[in-house]
Design brief:
The chain is mainly α. The chain has helices spanning 3-38, 50-71.
Length: 78
Amino acid sequence: MTDRTTRTARNQERSLEAFLAEKARFDAMVAELQQMSADHFGADPDTVLWGAHASLQHWNSLLARVTDSYLKRGEWAE
C-alpha cells in the first residue's frame, strides 16, 4: 500500500471507531429513555399535574428535533 492508501485506511478505521462509540452512547440514552417512559417519567399517573406535562412536552420537542432532522421533516424537509 502507498502511504496515502495507508493513511486513508487508518483514518477510516478511526472514524468507524469514533462513530461506533457515539452509537453506543446513543443506544444507552435510548435505553434510559425507554426506562424513563416505563416509569411515567417519574410522575404518578393518579396525581399527575400540568408541570409534569410541561416537562414531557419540552423533552418531546427536543427529541422531535433529532427525529425530524434524521427523517427530513419540518424545517429539515428537502
